[in-house]
Amino acid sequence: MYCLVDAVAFYASAEKVFDPAIRSKPVVVLTNNDGCICAICPIARRLNIPKFQPYFKVKHLLAKHKVVIRSSNYELYADLSDKMMNVISRFCDTQHVYSIDEAFLQFNGFTPLINDWHQYGQLIRRTVWRETKLPVGVGFGPTPTLAKAANHAAKKLNGFNGIAVIDSEQARQHILAAMDVADVWGVGKRLAKKLKLLNINSALDLAKQTPKRMKRLFSVVLERTVNELNGIVCLNWDDVRQDKREIFSTRSFGERLTDPVALKTALINHSIIVARKLRQQRSLTKRLLLFVASSPHESHYYKKSLVYELPVSSADSRVFAKAISEIFTQLYQHNVRFYKCGVGALELSSQQFQQPDLFAPSQDNIKLMECLDSINKRYGYDTLTLASQQQSQAWHMKRAFLSPQYTTRWQHLPKISCDL
């Protein structure tokens, strides 16, 4: 049996964890630079607030209903995600973290100990709530895709109340018949449109198709999906989530930049993020892609990208920062109001399988990077930084509604006042 545990409106729910005063109020969370709505709590969803709408378009609607607005607090979300995953891991012998707010569980040795899957799901939900104050949906199924479908039913379909179990043919058909084909894991809206032209409208309609026909008409991926919907396990953890083949860090600025120091600082910070992500999945890169751009709505649009070839594959933050300094003058142009920049790592390779070069020794200091990462993980990102990361603060994104970073900054620790 497989299980998918998924937080309900994770960003919005995370904002309520350390602020009990807003737990019964509608809450929305905005994207980078407070641009669009990216998360809506269940209470706010009843107000028909549209998701992914620009904030300025729905500003008056939010004010009318006294909706609490928050900027994206990524530091808080990452820490709460770690806590939630640690709690969930106690309920299975195999866990696969799929994203920041969802994880697959597999019960090999646990299965004989579980008499009632629905009751076990209740235990998972209660424990996660008690220890993290995050609401989650729990779905059980004989394959990862059916577990994902059960999780969808637990959160979106009437009558399930946060837990759904597909452990019989009747339960499978009931849930799949109530699901739109676009809600099937791995299908999406674009493929769903093509399927609906073939009169395949629900998840059950898709499950009734011949796998070989779906492979011939679409892809081997859809063939596997059909088999999984019929209880045949086709996916393993490597299929579910492989190491990334490219890693990017990009972001638009809170305000237009003309200062070369601020732009260079932004690029260096993006390169540090890329280096950290490379180390997390034990990868190295030989090529860095750097780009800068003004807004396409400017009268003189400017965009330029360059590829920097590293002498030796690397994941060292210092090597990346030095590369930015060497190539920056080729990217920067005077009198341009820069709107966005980014750094990407291309042609990734495993850190484990590297052939050293006798004539070009690696400049990476693995122990130093491990020390850097461990300190920042314990005390919060950017506790320890390179000097070149702090040259300017002008490039930071706009977060006018940012809540405190309760778990990663000492000065933001919750304060409790007791009246004697």
List the defining traits of the structure above:
DNA damage, DNA repair, UmuC, five-stranded mixed β-sheet, single chain, 12 strands, SOS response, 420 residues, Dna Ligase, domain 1, SOS mutagenesis
Describe it.
It comes from Pseudoalteromonas neustonica. This is Y-family DNA polymerase. Keywords: DNA damage, DNA repair, SOS mutagenesis, SOS response. The chain has 420 residues and is of the alpha+beta class. The chain has a domain at 247-390: 2-Layer Sandwich (Dna Ligase, domain 1), CATH 3.30.1490.100. Helix content is 39%, strand content 20%. It contains 15 helices and 12 strands. It has helices spanning 10-17, 42-45, 55-64, 74-88, 117-132, 144-156, 169-178, 188-197, 203-207, 211-217, 220-229, 237-240, 260-280, 317-331, 366-379; strands at 2-7, 27-30, 37-40, 68-71, 94-99, 102-106, 136-141, 163-165, 247-257, 283-294, 303-314, 338-350. The strands form 3 sheets. It has a 5-stranded mixed sheet. It is globular. 34% of the residues are buried.
Secondary-structure blueprint:
Layout (H helix, E strand, L loop, with lengths): L1 E6 L2 H8 L9 E4 L6 E4 L1 H4 L9 H10 L3 E4 L2 H15 L5 E6 L2 E5 L10 H16 L3 E6 L2 H13 L6 E3 L3 H10 L9 H10 L5 H5 L3 H7 L2 H10 L7 H4 L6 E11 L2 H21 L2 E12 L8 E12 L2 H15 L6 E13 L15 H14 L41
Parallel strand pairs: 2-4, 7-8
Antiparallel strand pairs: 1-6, 1-7, 2-3, 5-6, 9-12, 10-11, 10-12
